[in-house]
Write a structure and sequence with these properties.
By secondary structure, this protein is of the alpha+beta class. Helix content is 25%, strand content 28%. An 8-stranded antiparallel β-sheet has the order 1-5-4-3-2-8-7-6, covered by helices on one side. A hairpin with a 4-residue loop joins strand 4 and strand 5. The chain is globular and about 35 Å long.
């Protein structure tokens, strides 16, 4: 769960530290502060209140450079988490809502908006490098297991696959945010992909 608390900025393993970076959580503007991309966490601390948060990389489901002005008027680093945000202002509403989408409750959308938009690509690549240090154990199955699954399907005559190259192409988008991306290009949002993530930062 993402919780804003009194926060001590990290001092070790810092890959990128960028001041004057605003953050929005689920379309709510939190304020301006400093983002710390370290080997262990993705952190942010508010300049005024000193409150902040630290995110563990295994909880980052997606991150991308978003230049889609229809979703947000500012270019930003979009981050999707597989954990909810503890927002006291929405607590009563969530309790009283019978139609709340369970999937939306269990995820959080963040947008990091630096004053220097030229740093967005550097932020993206820094997260890629650090996230590669924390692979998801669920993605560590062996190639032998994968081949065994497909062999069983072929023997039953129910599935036909065009070859391993098709499998590689299907998994390329996932690898673009979780693998070794020292030479990859930043993933960018298509226009309208996150149309529901409208925001209007005051900065």
């Amino acid at each position: 769960m993402v919780v804003l608390t009194n926060f001590v900025p990290p001092t070790e393993g810092i890959k990128l530290q960028l001041p004057s970076t605003s953050v929005m959580i689920n379309n709510r503007e939190i304020g301006s502060g400093i983002i710390f991309i370290t080997e262990s966490t993705l952190s942010w601390v508010n300049d005024d209140s000193g409150e902040g948060f630290a995110l563990e990389y295994p909880h980052i489901s997606l991150h991308a450079v978003s230049r889609d002005r229809s979703s947000c008027p500012h270019e930003n680093l979009y981050v999707m988490l597989d954990i909810p945000w503890d927002d006291p202002e929405n607590e009563v509403q969530e309790v009283n809502s019978d139609d709340e989408d369970e999937d939306s409750v269990d995820m959080t959308e963040l947008r990091f908006i630096p004053n220097d938009k030229g740093m967005l690509d550097a932020m993206f690549h820094a997260i890629c490098e650090c996230q590669a240090l924390h692979p998801d154990p669920q993605d560590s199955f062996s190639e032998d297991d994968e081949e065994g699954i497909f062999e069983d399907e072929d023997e039953e005559g129910e599935y036909e696959l065009g070859g391993s190259d098709q499998i590689a192409r299907a998994t390329d988008p996932v690898e673009s945010t979780n693998g070794d991306l020292s030479s990859s290009e930043p993933m960018e949002m298509d226009a309208g992909q996150f149309e529901d993530a409208d925001c209007d930062p005051e900065n």
